[in-house]
Automatic annotation (TrEMBL):
<dbReference type="InterPro" id="IPR017871">
    <property type="entry name" value="ABC_transporter-like_CS"/>
</dbReference>
<dbReference type="GO" id="GO:0005886">
    <property type="term" value="C:plasma membrane"/>
</dbReference>
<feature type="domain" description="ABC transporter">
    <location>
        <begin position="22"/>
        <end position="256"/>
    </location>
</feature>
<dbReference type="InterPro" id="IPR027417">
    <property type="entry name" value="P-loop_NTPase"/>
</dbReference>
<dbReference type="InterPro" id="IPR003593">
    <property type="entry name" value="AAA+_ATPase"/>
</dbReference>
<dbReference type="GO" id="GO:0016887">
    <property type="term" value="F:ATP hydrolysis activity"/>
</dbReference>
<dbReference type="InterPro" id="IPR003439">
    <property type="entry name" value="ABC_transporter-like_ATP-bd"/>
</dbReference>
<dbReference type="GO" id="GO:0046677">
    <property type="term" value="P:response to antibiotic"/>
</dbReference>
<dbReference type="Pfam" id="PF00005">
    <property type="entry name" value="ABC_tran"/>
</dbReference>
<dbReference type="GO" id="GO:0005524">
    <property type="term" value="F:ATP binding"/>
</dbReference>
<keyword id="KW-0813">Transport</keyword>
<dbReference type="InterPro" id="IPR050763">
    <property type="entry name" value="ABC_transporter_ATP-binding"/>
</dbReference>
<keyword id="KW-0046">Antibiotic resistance</keyword>
<keyword id="KW-0067">ATP-binding</keyword>
<keyword id="KW-0547">Nucleotide-binding</keyword>
<protein>
    <submittedName>
        <fullName>ABC-2 type transport system ATP-binding protein</fullName>
    </submittedName>
</protein>
Amino acid sequence: MTAVELAGATETPHPPDTDPVLDVRGLRMRYGAVDVLHGVDFTARRGEVLALLGPNGAGKSTTIEILEGFRLRSAGEVRVLGTDPARGDEAWRARLGVVLQSWRDHGRWLVGDLLTHLGSYYAPYATAAIRRPWPTADLLDTVGLTGQAGRRVNQLSGGQRRRLDVAVGIVGRPELLFLDEPTVGFDPAARREFHDLVHRLADLDETTILVTTHDLDEAEKLADRILILAGGRVIADGSADELSRRVAGKAEIRWSVDGERFVHAATDATGFVRELFAQHGDAVADLEVRRASLEDAYMTLVREHESGGRTDTALRVLRGEEER
Ligand SMILES: Nc1ncnc2c1ncn2[C@@H]1O[C@H](COP(=O)(O)OP(=O)(O)OP(=O)(O)O)[C@@H](O)[C@H]1O
């Protein structure tokens, strides 16, 4: 993207590239007499995509609302783009994008007009480095709604409506984007396009993205890092691959020789396969190596946690993360 300076643009403070975009330490939240968050810790760098996973009621929405500045925390240190969200002003808010589960107002607006109108609020917060807002035609093209520009919002299909939600969330070219269950109602093609869009935002614009989802396949495809929240704490923090590897330890290897099928579980899958070829050479067919999926890892970690806090695996995952 080219940097364009807009007339009347004011500089907003911009943390150095090395500063974390999100820095959460010892975050606690209590509703009445009930503690929901018991000390949540995590950070996120510029351009990183994080998926926040966890069972219903784990406190994902609460955490996000605190980061967005919509809810006051009970205790802990939180910095979002270098600012305490409890004290975030309009200039800080203009640097965030939020895609909530659904918007139901604005039904009578035309799609293009709505984006142009909402985008106009961001113009004063453009900087030399970040052009704000995103030009409407480019944005419609990016989210695949060019053909719907002249239609009323209440005439869109569910999936188109969701694309519009995404467009509304990114019209201000946010440095940090919150996506809550972003692809519910998308058809498979729209999902794939959306995943490409998220990767483009993270890679080209260096947007930091925090996604909450119950779709583990989506989390695995989208996120550089997975955070699992359970019992008010982050019980795992690492890439999908790291989590799966540490939880499962072994990979499952399947192959056939002369039409007979075999299965074996090995910690050193590469070594095992090397040995297999050394012994059977070209006779080895139908080879498959399968590591535990993120879903396997997630289920193991959450079940261990729920069955009375046997968090050996969770601790191992976190320890491994610290060692990196
Ligand atoms: N305003 C509130 N007052 C009291 N309790 C609340 C309030 N908001 C949330 N809670 C409780 O806090 C806990 C965490 O809720 P939260 O919505 O953050 O979870 P979640 O992980 O987002 O869940 P889900 O996956 O179901 O969306 C739940 O037990 C919920 O009932």
